[in-house]
Amino acid sequence: MYKSVIRPILFGFDPEKIHYFTFSTLRFLNKIPGAKSVFKSLYQVDDKRLEREVFGLKFKNPVGLAAGFDKDAKLYKELSNLGFGFIEIGTLTPKGQEGNPKKRLFRLKEDSAIINRMGFNNGGVFEAVERLKKNNGVLIGGNIGKNKLTPNEDAVSDYEICFDALYDYVDYFVVNVSSPNTPNLRALQDKEPLTQLLQTLQQKNTTKPKQKPILLKIAPDLTDEQLLDIVDIVNDTKIAGVIATNTTISREGLTSENQKETGGLSGKPLTKRSTEVIRFLSEKSNKSFPIIGVGGIHSAEDALEKLDAGASLVQLYTGFIYEGPELIKKINKKLLQKK
């Protein structure tokens, strides 16, 4: 029903406007008596065999929602009713910011893809914290970044502010230095600044009553040499793991009319490269740290490929938009068939 009826209607409107309309609709529907139970019966697959224990956390199933969809933690409860095992909010910055000028979100229908240049638009970490205080049982990841106007030499302090603010309200952290939509942000992926950033956060982590897993989200555009650096950095700083991958700046093989829009590309064109990065990191690290696989998952088979390549968990974003919540159910059902 989603692909045949709902999606054609949604895709007839501006992507960013329809995103907020969908949020409002989901929130409204979940307030109707009995609606939560209906959503859960339609999309949730409850089976102990789907549970995963990764970096000390228990996930009820391995399919999560990637960051970028619920940036401000406004809809994590309603989205969890659609069958996700965990929800990653953000990217959050210390101060609220508008992000880049509109229009900044583009569908590439022929390629089953999206280009975005949102630019970390969010209301700020402290607004999100107020919403997270109302959480009751949803496993939450907190994706953190720096404000656009913060120079790279001061970036560490932005990440520290977000870490401290979110510490009591998220189950794991994700350090985002790989978005192509904040000027010079990807320079923080270089070995020296990245090591310093992660070491600082890990040091702060050790001062807390209980350490929270810290993960690093990386770009798919890194060379093999840079990926080997990532393996070294993860092992040296002893962070919990890696999320592979963020959006790409590559435009190889696209056919859609608006393919030349600047920003990060997500969706089917990223499927192969994301899986290659997962396999490379898994093999070169001798599986020494967990990987969350994300990028171009549009089918149950895509998810299984990433898990087979070495991912412990997977996340959806563009595939969720194109395929609908039925995709979550299909992946979990497929995993049970393999048991």
From TrEMBL:
Sorted UniProt keywords: Cell membrane, Flavoprotein, FMN, Membrane, Oxidoreductase, Pyrimidine biosynthesis
Q: Which GO BP terms apply?
A: 'de novo' pyrimidine nucleobase biosynthetic process; 'de novo' UMP biosynthetic process
Alphabetical list of Pfam families matching this protein: DHO_dh
Positions with a binding annotation for FMN? A67, G68, F69, D70, K71, T91, N143, N176, K217, T245, G267, G296, Y317, T318
Q: Which GO terms describe its cellular component?
A: cytoplasm; plasma membrane
Please list the reactions this protein catalyses.
(S)-dihydroorotate + a quinone = orotate + a quinol
What is this enzyme's EC?
1.3.5.2
Can you tell me which residues bind substrate? K71, N116, R117, M118, G119, F120, N176, N181, N246, T247
Presence of keyword Nucleus: no
Q: Which InterPro entries match?
A: Aldolase_TIM, DHO_dehydrogenase, Dihydroorotate_DH_1_2, Dihydroorotate_DH_2, Dihydroorotate_DH_cat, Dihydroorotate_DH_CS
What Gene3D superfamilies does the annotation carry? Answer: Aldolase class I
Cofactor(s) it depends on: FMN
Q: In which pathway does it act?
A: Pyrimidine metabolism; UMP biosynthesis via de novo pathway; orotate from (S)-dihydroorotate (quinone route): step 1/1
The Swiss-Prot or TrEMBL record annotates one GO molecular function as: dihydroorotate dehydrogenase (quinone) activity
Report the superkingdom from the record. Bacteria
What is the free-text note on the cofactor?
Binds 1 FMN per subunit.
Q: What does this protein do?
A: Catalyzes the conversion of dihydroorotate to orotate with quinone as electron acceptor.
Q: What is this protein called?
A: Dihydroorotate dehydrogenase (quinone)
Look up and give the organism this protein is from. Answer: Flavobacterium microcysteis
What gene is this protein a product of? pyrD
